[in-house]
Automatic annotation (TrEMBL):
Cellular component aspect of the GO annotation: cell outer membrane
Compartments it resides in: Cell outer membrane
InterPro entries documented for this protein: SusD-like_N (IPR033985), SusD_RagB_dom (IPR012944), TPR-like_helical_dom_sf (IPR011990)
Keywords: Cell outer membrane, Membrane, Signal
Species per Swiss-Prot/TrEMBL record: Filimonas zeae
Residue span(s) of domain RagB/SusD: 326-463
Pfam families with a match to the protein in the record: SusD-like_3 (PF14322), SusD_RagB (PF07980)
Name under which the protein is recorded: Membrane protein
Domain SusD-like N-terminal span(s) in chain numbering: 96-232
Family: Belongs to the SusD family.
Length: 463
């Protein structure tokens, strides 16, 4: 169902039902009443226990339950934009191959449901939480700040993803479907202003939050990390550097072993979204890695990415695997699949939308653009962790190339970084035009789903 026609009661009930799954996996999450689907919105937000269940339910909805499919909430975006760029190929035909061939149909399910509809579902739920919590008289001021701050972050996070996939998109900041069903595409500047406003307000609300910092629920460092990314994309170099520096100065550190970078609660992780479905630690691994004796992964690493690694780069050997037949190489950042020994109370890997490695590369680029020292040193931290020597780059142009090279091999397959980097630096046509015979400039924007443009006359399509 298109996001425009979800009513508030069903949305709130959905996040509350999903929140019930958390109680068996994390003691910090609060139990919800036994019959959540019978609660009206006023009851959902009557007290902090129910309101907390509503916000944590969004996190669980991001992953999905019981054999979840790839979506924008569990890094399907990283896979599909990686195919649209030059990171991955699909071994099968169908909707996935449309991304590889840069000819995405307006009825593509991965694009329409996995990206667009899911993003707006999470935005809608975030709006419902903000409105319900703000109107509640049974929640303390401190708890209101915590819950509204989390919801603002999530709303900003998904608007940011949408605008970088589709360009101007409907700016959805209320839960009233009578309003959202007719929203036109907003100017990109307006969407970015709302994203920054949401994040800056969220940071103020969470700056002195008494809740123990976790990797699962968004905290002030996660907010600042996303702000660093947004400022970088907006070319606000001073702000990007300051935000990244604040996160780097937090209680984080680069893990020594690359295989630990995506483990639950590792020191490098800033924000993680672990699965609550037994055996489905990450949706990415379960959708890619060959299982049950098979030797054909669904997604393979494109030659352009394979050739980008330097000799001796541990990321090539530890984050990419080869099938036993030797015919296919595939992404292997996540390694655990359908493991019956894994229970919902003991996940071992987690989707990681924000991690420290990106912060060093953001700060390196921001420092370089400001003409101040330290860019090469930040690049070297990432290179050295991967088993490589210091960069030999000396000129500004060469250091910039070194930064983009490290972003390419460090962040591949994660949350759309490569595709977005090519777009934000204005190099996408030159790079992909030289690499792919299927590339055309219009493919830099994914199509607005057909059913959305049919239901909303104010929603104009992309080229």
């Amino acid at each position: 169902m298109p996001y425009l026609y979800i009513n508030i009661r069903s949305a709130v009930a959905a996040v509350t039902v999903a929140a019930a799954l958390i109680t068996s996996s994390c003691k910090k999450f609060i139990e919800i009443p036994p019959n959540p689907t019978t609660l009206a919105p006023s009851q959902i937000f009557a007290d902090s226990a129910n309101a907390t269940a509503a916000i944590t339910g969004i996190y669980i909805s991001m992953i999905g339950t019981s054999s979840p499919a790839l979506s924008i909430g569990n890094d399907g975006m990283g896979m599909w934009t990686g195919m649209a760029a030059d990171e991955f190929d699909a071994t099968g035909a169908g909707f996935a191959k449309e991304f590889v061939n840069n000819n995405i149909s307006i009825t593509n399910t991965f694009n329409g449901s996995g990206l667009w509809a899911n993003a707006y579902k999470f935005i809608y739920q975030s709006n419902a939480v903000m409105e319900g919590v703000a109107a509640s008289s049974g929640i303390s001021a401190a708890m209101k700040n915590r819950l509204i701050g989390e919801a603002e972050f999530l709303r900003a996070y998904f608007h940011f993803a949408l605008i970088n996939v589709y360009s101007g998109v409907p700016l959805c900041i209320v839960s009233d479907y009578k309003v959202t069903s007719k929203l036109p595409r907003a100017d990109t500047g307006a969407v970015y202003r709302q994203i920054v406003a949401d994040l800056e307000d969220a940071y103020q609300r969470l700056q002195h939050d008494p809740l123990t910092l976790t990797k699962v629920r968004v905290n002030r460092y996660a907010v600042k990390a996303l702000l660093a990314r947004v400022y970088l994309y907006r070319k606000q170099w001073t702000l990007a550097e300051a935000a990244a520096t604040e996160v780097i100065g937090g209680n984080y550190g680069l893990v020594t072993n690359l295989d630990s970078a995506f483990l639950v609660n590792n020191r490098e992780a800033i924000w993680q979204v672990p699965s609550t479905a037994p055996g489905w630690e990450t949706v990415v691994a379960n959708n890619i890695i060959p299982q049950y004796g098979g030797n054909v992964p669904t997604s393979i690493v494109a030659p352009h990415l394979l050739n980008a690694f330097e000799t001796g780069d541990k990321r090539r050997t530890q984050w990419i695997a080869t099938t036993s037949t030797g015919l296919y190489t595939y992404p292997y950042k996540f390694k655990l699949v359908n493991n019956s020994a894994v229970t919902v109370s003991n996940p071992k890997e987690a989707h990681t939308p924000l991690r420290l490695g990106e912060m060093y590369l953001i700060r390196a680029e921001a420092r370089l653009k400001q003409g101040i020292a330290g860019a090469a040193e930040d690049v070297n931290r990432i290179r050295n962790r991967a088993g490589l020597g210091n960069t030999t780059a000396a000129s500004d142009d060469d250091i910039m190339k070194a930064i983009m090279q490290e972003r390419r091999v460090e962040l591949f397959g994660e949350w759309g970084h490569r595709f977005f980097d090519l777009k934000r630096t204005g190099t996408i046509d030159a790079v992909l035009g030289a690499e792919k015979t299927t590339w055309r400039s219009a493919a830099a924007l994914f199509p607005i789903p057909y059913n959305e443009t049919q239901l909303n006359p104010n929603l104009t399509p992309n080229p």
